[in-house]
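Pilot study result, target chain (88 residues):
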Amino acid sequence: SILVQRDVARLNRDELACALLDENIETKKYFFPALHRQKLYADYQPEDSSDLKRTELISEGILSLPIYESLPDETVEKVALAIRNALL
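Predicted structure:
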């Protein structure tokens, strides 16, 4: 997984995900929404959950790239090149 920050990458996680999908590279948005934003856990969050800005930043920026045991080096290079091209 990578953290995509607009102020660094000039695009956000969703824009990068779309750019990668255009290259037939599927990604996932794991850890989204943040746990304290999920309905199931709404009753368990602390009264002052407004101090979770870092958690929200990370949750909104995490993009999980393809990864599995037999991932070929060529695919890794393709993903890296596609990310580089999207950021340029």
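One observation from the pilot: The radius of gyration is 15 Å. A full batch analysis is planned for the follow-on phase.
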